Amino acid sequence: MSVSPAVSEPAAKPLSAPQKALRKLGLARDIDLALHLPLRYEDETRIVKLRDARDGDTVQIEGEVTHQEITYRPRRQLLVSVHDGSDSCVLRFFNFYPSQQKQMAVGSRIRARGELRGGFAGLTMMHPTVRAAGGGLPRALTPVYPTVAQLPQPYLRKVVLAGLAQADLGETVPEQMLNDIGIQPLWSLRDALLFLHQPTPDVALAQLEDRSHPAWQRLKAEELLAQQLSQLQARGARAHLRAPVLVPARGGLVDQLLAALPFALTGAQRRVGEEIAGDLGRAQPMHRLLQGDVGSGKTVVAALAACTTIDAGWQCALMAPTEILAEQHFAKLVEWLEPLLAPRGQRVAWLTGSQKKKARAEMLAAIESGEAALVVGTHAVIQAQVRFARLGLAIIDEQHRFGVAQRLALRQKMADSDVGAGLPAMGADGGGTAVSRASPLPQEATGAGPVPPPAIEPHLLMMSATPIPRTLAMSYYADLDVSTIDELPPGRTPVVTKLVAAHRRAEVIERIRAQIAQGRQVYWVCPLIEESEALDLRNATETHAELGAALPGAAIGLLHSRMPVADKKAVMGAFTAGQMAVLVSTTVIEVGVDVPNASLMVIEHAERFGLSQLHQLRGRVGRGAAASACVLLYEAPEGGRLGETARARLKAMAETNDGFEIARRDLEIRGPGEFLGARQSGAALLRFADLAEDARLLDWARRAAPRLLARHPGLAKKHVARWLGGRVDYLGA
Ligand code: ADP
Ligand code: MG
Questions:
Q1: Rounded to whole angstroms, how far apart are CA atoms 731 and 733?
Q2: pTM score
Q3: What is the pLDDT of residues 411-442, one digit of tens each?
Q4: HEC-encoded secondary structure of 549-594
Q5: Under a CB-based contact definition with an 8 Å cutoff, are residues 310 and 341 in contact?
């Protein structure tokens, strides 16, 4: 396919403002313009009689001006009365020029277009578009495109039509597959586009605007197919990569850890463990998301995967988004694994940004020598100086908290020579059989010269407590394999959630007193104040003092993000050890903290938190057998009511403990763009299709994509290029 740029000109000439705006909208190629579809339409094809129009209709009328005046009450305005033979209507202008007054002089015939309002004083139109009466009427509806300020509609209409005329609109999907969509009647891509840009007026506008029209269906199906194809391509690209084959030794670390654990795995943990083990045993890199609600026990599953990796003679890295969380993992994994690793001369290493130079250098050396079989840390783990002897598995906890940039950095890290360098050594000392079993890359006939060795990547396991709703899993995350822990460890009592207005704070403090009396522990989370970290801190400090005064004799700790790491550790350590009754904190405890004796979570200004954040916080309690509660303190803004989304969030929290349901509602409240967050920055969200409404088309796309890719790889490539242009890379991140 040859695509000529829509706006082509000599390099020296600077772009005009509208041309720049086109670029900003991502409209670089003819096909981009052709696929830039109208938001809505205006019907200028008809003249309507006032008698037939209804209040609220946007209509075009033609008639004679019968009166004109400027009034000053309530403010200066121009009033023009028009009679069209059936009724009369007053046109009202707050801004106007002498030329307009002249155009609308009494006795002249005009054509006016605007929204009609019926009222006490008769029909009116506010700021209609006016031109002289007569002249031809357009035959098609007038498209209104999504645009930006620097790009006026008439200009955009012109370039879109030009792009449409130039673009290659040849079909990329064989007719038989198209028939499977079940759209009646089936439109060709060309016809669908021509129609949507300039629909004939006889079509039901409603069908166009709610996008249920067959032409829209056709385009939405195309878009969803492109998305599925790009994900399949990402998957396919991975199939050409090699990864070490990791199989646990009989009686090795996996068995030893299982024997040493103080609990038996749940059925769900065993199942996902097997899914992961299956992947690790293959010579292609795993790309799997392990999702499970807060407290479902993902850490031990990760530890078992680490054991398999170490058993097979490779290293494992575990990365967490915050230092506190990484610290908790480290403590737990040291407790579980060090006794097993020590006899083998191996250890667990710890890497973080705040580490002392000497400690860090020591860790780096242990990682490079391979002595550190498991490396736990923050994203310090993927920094340039870190050289793994042979990284076999990378685990990312709370993966949704990492941005795209960090995930790309990790993939880069995994693909670069540090890892590959480990391979020959591994092959030589028999640490595994990856090299011989790996499938060779198809070799390209590039003439003479050495064929580059296939890229080697470690396996990748991502973990998240924010489950991806099904529709998103099938679309944006279709390139991921997903394992789900859908069962909590036994003996947990569900957390009771209470919404409490802020003026009842004293009652909440009484409740804390009662919990402490029973030897329980309590979290109090202070609100995040976006604009000011200092305010944030003051709030937490004041609450800390307030609780100290109200609960004399109780040990009350304070944790906030500005504290030196050593202090944070000391506070967290004391709370974990049960030496502290109440922990007042800013949101630093958000993820992963595990203190089973904590039974009450108080969240102040809960209305300021996001839904998944609230759910995560609530997940910090209810980890032991004691009945636990979560109190959401809320406060409406001064004199007002809570906003609608804040109310929807709190309601969802009170109604359900189910992480999947929470995620589904979060998606509903926020929409996929925000839900996906950083993942989608730079990547195209679906423009036309709606995951909830177009489930049937999504199903079709999921079935059609692998067939198209297998039978017509050239067409598949063309299809993705057409729809996603240069953005494909990012989608796989
Ligand atoms: P999350 O999935 O939120 O990361 P964790 O891995 O932190 O959950 O596990 C939560 C708690 O449950 C931990 O204290 C962990 O040791 C415990 N746990 C995990 N699996 C089981 C199990 N099968 N039986 C009992 N307790 C378990
Ligand atoms: Mg966790």
A1: 6
A2: 0.67
A3: 666 655 344 443 333 333 333 333 333 333 33
A4: HHCCCCCEEEECCCCCHHHHHHHHHHHHCCCCCEEEECHHHCCCCC
A5: yes
Q: Give the tokens for residue 384.
A: 């340039």
Q: Are 657 and 496 contacting, i.e. CB atoms less than 8 angstroms apart?
A: no
Mutation test of ligand 1: which of 263, 269, 591 has the most ligand atoms closer than 8 Å to its C-beta?
Answer: 263
623 CB within 6 A, ligand 1: yes
Contact 277, 252 (CB under 8 A): no
How does 540-550 read in b/e, with b if 16+ C-beta sit within 10 Å?
A: beebbeebbee
Q: Looking at this protein, which amino acid is placed at residue 506?
A: A
pLDDT at position 438 is 34
Beta bridge partners of 132: 110
Give 619-664 pLDDT, tens digit per residue: 889 887 788 999 999 988 776 788 888 888 999 999 998 888 888 7
Distance, CA of 317 to CA of 335 (rounded, Å): 17
What is the best residue among 257, 335, 589, 594 to mutate for testing ligand 1's pocket, by most ligand atoms within 8 Å of CB? 594
User: Residues 6 or more apart from 677 whose CB is under 8 A from it?
Assistant: 400
Q: What's the count of helices (H) and strands (E) in the chain, helices before strands?
A: 27, 21
**DSSP string for residues in 378-398:** SGGGGSTT---SSEEEEEETT
**Three-state DSSP state, 249:** coil
Q: Please tell me the distance from the alpha carbon of residue 211 to that of residue 217, in angstroms, as a whole number.
A: 7
Residue with the smallest CA separation from ligand 1 atom 12 is 297
Report strand pairing: 347-351 vs 123-126: unpaired
Strands in 178-294 per DSSP E: 287-292
Question: What DSSP element (H or E) covers 109?
Answer: strand 109-117
